[in-house]
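User: When convenient, might I ask for sequence and structure tokens for a protein?

AI:
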Amino acid sequence: VMDTDSKDQPKFGKIRGMLFPIYSSEFRKFIPLAIIFLCISFVYSLVRSMKDTFILSNAPSETIYVLKTFFVLPMMILFTIIYSKIAKKVGRDTRFNIVALYFIGFFLLSFLVFIPFSKQLQLDSVAAYLNAVAPRFKTYWAAIQYWHLSLFYFNAEAWGSFMLSVAFW
């Protein structure tokens, strides 16, 4: 005779309760959610590596610190404000879809336009002018020169923060 909980489902043994406490009736939701979470984590590990590679292969390494401090931080605050406004207006599933579609669209744009046409998108003349005017800030100007890679860097950082947390909640 098995013990049952309040939902008339059999209770798990101690080991199964610790390792895999999912009822067979919950597999219908658990399996797709686990696959989504694994895909989000996989993409996060890919873009996390690529963002550094793209910046380091084109700009000085100090540009990463400039991007994290003066671009990623303010943009994450702005994204959080936008996300909170979206959260007030739409439901949980729609919110997830909006965030996922934004990032999927941006990464498609990056891999179809920004990366293949990287040399044409660089703002070399703007960076050269800014370097002539204020050479002390050359790492800031490199972030502007490689604006498309800076955007990729930001979105790769934001993917981890937003997609993982939105999928979790």
